[in-house]
Amino acid sequence: MTQGNGGWGSPGRVVVITNENTGDAFESDFVIHYCWSDNYTYMSANETSTWINAKFPLGSAIRVAYKDTSGLPPDQQGALTFVHGQNDEFDGSLPYYYSKSRLRFGLTNANRDGTVFTTNFMGYLRNEEVYYSRKFMVTDVLSNMEQVGNDLKTEAYEEVVSAGARGSGESITLYTSDGSLFFGAGIGTEACPETIVVCQGNSSPTSQTPRPLFYIQCGSNTVVTHDPYTDPYSGSVPSDNGFKRPYQCQLDEFDTTKTGRASWKLLGFFADDACASLEQHSTYVSDYCEQRTPSASPSMVSSDIPSVVSSSSPSKVASSIPTVTASNTPTITASLSPSKVTSSTPTITASDIPTITSSISPSKVASSTPSITASDIPTITSSISPSQAELCGTNPASTPNNGICEAGEDCTNSPNDCYGELDGKPQRRFCCHGGSSSLVAYGTLCTDSRCSSSSSSSSSGCNLSNDPVTWCCGDGVCAGGGETSNNCPQDCSTNNPVTTPAPTVVVTTAAPTLSSPVVTTAAPTPPTGGCFGRNAWCSSNGECCSGNCKNNGKCA
C-alpha cells in the first residue's frame, strides 16, 4: 500500500478504514485510488505506509466509514448510490480490454460544480466500433442501499460492438435551400419538397457513416460539427490551461467571461466532413420538411400565400390568391358558374334511380339466402348462410397473437408469439424470430430451444417460411386472422386469436396445400462444417470452430 500526498482529490471529509479481522484502523482525509493495477491503494493517511501494510495483510476484510457521523438513523437518511457493476466482462477473452475498468467518484474544484460518478473504460476503441455502458444511479433511504446495490450489480455491464451490429438504423438526410441559413432533417423516405440535399447519414454508426454530427447552440450562435467541444461563437475549440469546458460558451464579443450555456443535438452519424457546407451560423429547424409539405387536412381559413403543391382536400373558404396548380378535389359548396367539363369525382349522395347494368363492386350487405355456387367476388360482410363449398383463406405472413412465431415477427414486436430475453448481460440475451432471417438485435431462429419458454405462447409453434399463411377450415390448425371460432369452430376454440390484420377470404371447392407449415421447435445446430465461425452467436464452446464461446455470446 502506497501512502499519497495531500492535495488533489480531497473530498473534505475524513474516513476511518478498519481491518474487520483485527480491529486495526487508521484515518484518511482523502483516497485517490482504492485499487490501482490490482495491487495499490493511493491515499493520504495518519499512519505510515509501512504500518498500514503490516496491519492490513492480503486477504483482510476492510470497512470504510466516515468519521464522526451523526444525525438521523440510516432508515431516515436519504442517500445517493452509483452502481458500477463488477466488470465480469473482463475475463481475458475479450480483445478490446487491456485492463479492468476503473471507478471514479468524488467532488470537483471551485471552477466546476459537479459530483463525479463514472467508470473509465480501460481498453481499445477502434474505428467503426461502438462502446456502450449501463450503470445505475439510485436514490433511496440509506438503510436500503446495500440491498438495492447488490440486486443491480449483476445488471450493470459494458461492451464494445462493431458499428451496425445492433441494427442498421434508419437513413437521415439533411436538407436546405439555395441561399438559406436554415436546414432540417428527413428520416427514411420522408419527403422534403423544394430543397437540396446537403448530406446523408444514419441513425446508428455504420462503416460508411461512422462519425457523430452535433448541432450546438449558445444563445443566437450555432455550429454543426463532429467535435462536441466546439464553441458556437468562435467556431473553434477553446482551451483554458489545457482544460476543455464546453458547457461554458461565449454569447457575443462582450461576453469575455463566457456566461452562456450550450445545448447539443445529435443529428445522426455521417461520413467525415460530409456536411461541412452547413458548419457555422446555420440554424436547425425541427419541422423544416413538414413546413414544406402540404397538409392532408385543409385549414379553416385560407393562406395568404398559396402552397407550391395543391392540397388533396380543398379549404372551405376560397383563397384570395389561387394555387399555382389546379386542385383535383372540388369545393364543398357549388360554384356560381358550373364547369363546362364533367367532374372526375362523383356526388356524395347516391342517385334515386338505379343503373340498368350491374355494379362492378358487390353490395355491402350480405344476402340472407346463399348462392348455390360460390361468387367470384365475395361480399364485404359474411353471409348468414355460407356456401356449401369449403371455407379457406390467406392470412398475411404474420398474424399477431396467434401463438405462432412467423415471418416479420420477433420478441420486440410480437412478444406473445415470439419469446426473448433482452435484459441483463449481452451473452445471456436472445430474441426469437419467425421466417428465415431477421435484423432484430440478438436474433435467433424460433427453432432455438430457448424460444419454447413456457412463459410465452410462442411455444405453440414456429414458422420459418416467408410466404403468406394459407388455411382451410377443418385442417386442425387455428391460423387466426380470418379463421375464428365463428366461422370454423372445429379448428378454433372460443378463445380466438386477434383478427387483425384481416385476411383476404376466398371460397374454394378443394383444399389447397399449405405453403407455410407450422414446425415444432428444436435446438439450433451448427452449419454443415460442424461448427460456427467467428462472431456467430453461440451458447457453448462446442458450437464454435475456435472452441471458445465468449461471455458476450459470440464465437471467438
Task: Describe how the helices and strands are arranged.
Elements: E1 2-3, E2 15-19, E3 25-28, E4 30-36, E5 40-44, H1 49-55, E6 62-66, E7 78-83, E8 102-107, E9 115-120, E10 129-134, E11 136-141, H2 145-152, E12 157-162, E13 171-176, E14 182-187, E15 196-202, E16 211-218, E17 221-225, E18 248-249, E19 260-261, E20 263-270, E21 283-284, H3 288-291, E22 390-395, E23 404-405, E24 420-421, E25 430-433, E26 443-445, E27 461-462, E28 469-472, E29 504-508
Parallel strand pairs: 1-5, 14-21, 23-27, 25-26
Antiparallel strand pairs: 2-3, 2-6, 4-5, 7-11, 8-9, 10-12, 13-14, 13-15, 16-17, 16-20, 18-19, 22-28, 22-29, 24-25
Overview in brief:
The protein has 3 helices and 29 strands. It has 556 residues and is mainly beta.
Q: Could you list some keywords that capture this structure?
A:
single chain; 556 residues; mainly beta; 4-stranded mixed β-sheet; 3-stranded mixed β-sheet; 3 helices; 3% helix; 25% strand; globular
Description of the molecule:
The chain is mainly β. 3% of the residues lie in helices and 25% in strands. The protein contains 3 helices and 29 strands. It has helices at 49-55, 145-152, 288-291, and strands spanning 2-3, 15-19, 25-28, 30-36, 40-44, 62-66, 78-83, 102-107, 115-120, 129-134, 136-141, 157-162, 171-176, 182-187, 196-202, 211-218, 221-225, 248-249, 260-261, 263-270, 283-284, 390-395, 404-405, 420-421, 430-433, 443-445, 461-462, 469-472, 504-508. The strands form 11 sheets. A 4-stranded mixed sheet has the order 15-13-14-21, with no helix packed on it. Strands 1-5-4 form a 3-stranded mixed sheet, with no helix packed on it. Strands 3-2-6 form a 3-stranded antiparallel sheet, with no helix packed on it. A hairpin with a 7-residue loop joins strand 8 (102-107) and strand 9 (115-120). The chain is globular, with a radius of gyration of 34 Å. The model is unreliable at 1-11, 454-459 and 496-525 (pLDDT under 50).
